[in-house]
Amino acid sequence: MDVADTRLCLLLHSVPGLGDEMLSRLLLHCGGPPGVAGADRGLWLEAGLTRAVATALAQALRSGRAAGFDIDAQLRALAAVDAQVLAVTDPRYPPLLRAIHDPPPLLYLRGDPTVLAQAQLAVVGSRRASHAGLRAASTLAGEAAVAGLQICSGLAQGIDGAAHRGALAAGGNTVAVVATGIDRVYPARHRGLADELLQSGCMVSEFPPGMQPLKQNFPRRNRVISGLSLGVLVVEAALPSGSLITARTALEQDREVFTLPWSIFHAGGAGCLRLLRDGAKLVTGIQDVLEELGQLYAVQQQLFPGRATPAREPLTAGQQQVLDMLGYETISTDQLGSLSDMPVHRLMAELSTLELMGLVSRCPGGYMRC
Known about the structure:
Layout: H1 3-12, H2 20-30, H3 33-38, H4 41-46, H5 51-63, H6 71-80, E1 84-87, H7 95-98, E2 106-111, E3 120-124, H8 131-146, E4 150-153, H9 159-169, E5 174-177, H10 191-197, E6 202-205, H11 217-228, E7 231-234, H12 242-252, E8 256-259, H13 270-277, E9 281-282, H14 286-292, H15 296-303, H16 317-325, H17 333-339, H18 344-356, E10 360-363, E11 366-369
Helix pairs in contact: 1-6, 8-9, 11-12, 14-15, 16-18
């Protein structure tokens, strides 16, 4: 899209009263931004515009500006980050997203747009994730990426960031859907992560450049995450949770919803248990996701042809005792000591051995099973 067409998209997005739903309908009815600009008022009204909005559109097209918007500044902001705009009529616009009932009329994009048309799995969850949740997000996203799925998430702290990083560490691509203008990275601490994912993936927003991180924009962002994806994996979510909004929009969009079976004593996983109660697919490994998504499982099978698990030495009685005391949430060494009759030095020795064997993991506050 050249500068003139980009300017036209920005202008259409700034017309007073021309909301996103109406703009999408107008673009589809007229065949794209140039078709809108070249159409007469009768065609606009036929697309559903009111006379007042049609008048505002005519004035904006005639003057090349809309009150309250600096189109030139927006163009400079897009150019500064090498961003482009995809209208809903653009052949590069992701077809799955176009199929939802309220697709964004315009997508502002940095990076490779072809990634958006590839099969994606959304991986979302709590910003205040537990160590176990972060690890699960990173591991599952990495395994999904190796199986050929692009990982889609929201670039937020916690589970989102872990999912993006897990995909990148596995050599996969990842898509970040943001609730700000495409010229901003929120939170700012994820600028490095954004730069890394843009090397092979992309970042998208439905909001014009300059948009601040407003609270009301995040639920809209969530519907784009689910709309781009074949399914949504909610790794860890409390009650209430923005991740549950993403799950709800996924169901409305006829997408699959997956989640993990957390302990009833882990408040951070209460939202996941609610999803399971309501019919979400239980996930204990990425194979559960791949099998449910159908043909994509065949891709995974080709990439993991009969991978064998190396045999390991059987555990000693002491090692087994310590392992049996551990779960998938952090437990302190003091708690382990109170549960065991072992001397502290032996308990620490057994924990160190189990860690070397890859069966337990040391984390802030203690240990947990791998």
